[in-house]
UniProtKB/TrEMBL annotation:
Catalytic activity: 4-CDP-2-C-methyl-D-erythritol 2-phosphate = 2-C-methyl-D-erythritol 2,4-cyclic diphosphate + CMP
Keyword Ion transport: no
Superkingdom classification of source: Eukaryota
Originating species: Nannochloropsis salina CCMP1776
An example Gene Ontology biological process: isopentenyl diphosphate biosynthetic process, methylerythritol 4-phosphate pathway
Protein name: 2-C-methyl-D-erythritol 2,4-cyclodiphosphate synthase
Keyword terms, alphabetized: Isoprene biosynthesis, Lyase, Metal-binding
UniProt-annotated stretches for the region Disordered: 45-80
Listed EC numbers: 4.6.1.12
Amino acid sequence: MYNRQVIFALSQLPRRRQIFLLICLISSALAFVRPATVALHNQSPHLQGRDGIHDATTATSTPPRKGAPRMSAYSEPVPQATDPPFRVGHGFDIHRLEAGLPLVIGGVKIEFEKGSAAHSDGDALYHSVTDAILGAIGLPDIGQLFPDTDPKWKGADSAQFMREARRLMTLRGYRIGNVDVTLILQKPKVKDIKPQMKANLVELLGTEESRVNIKARTHEHVDSVGESRSWVVHVVILLEKV
């Protein structure tokens, strides 16, 4: 009876007033429903992100390669219909140089009085390339995937990180477009080993020699790099959709 009276009263109102009240009613309903929808979205562990990374509880389609380093907190990337034809990544790393430690640059061990202070083998070049690939495909950085708090990476060959980055890149549906490396250290000189470093990158990335470039320069005796207390690598990488 009450509802009929309300409906009758509303029907006697001018048309504009009826429309106004209808809009108010719809707005109130949406204000009530939206918080519940957001809460449900935030609580669901099975939602897929816009960058094509599935939650670890649902991604089981790609079996791990035996002996390969595995991500513990993140799952496999998958190709997306909205993926752009190209992706760009930037990698950076710096390591202190300390006496009595081995120095490995681009997979080449160099005889020098100092070496990288690091949890792994301290190859900042490999670390930077790895980070550039991970960044390009929207994954966490190398420090999250291979944390220095994990004893299994103690003294690890950084080529392992490169292989895993390449595997993830391939899963996402991309390949190397080109890689540009800038190596900055005061000494030792690396001119003679640049061809070997380049060959190592070509092999690990499964690409062509023409797509990899390595530049080296000093830091003009400025700051810790110029005083041979550290060395730095920058990498810019272009990925192409397969």
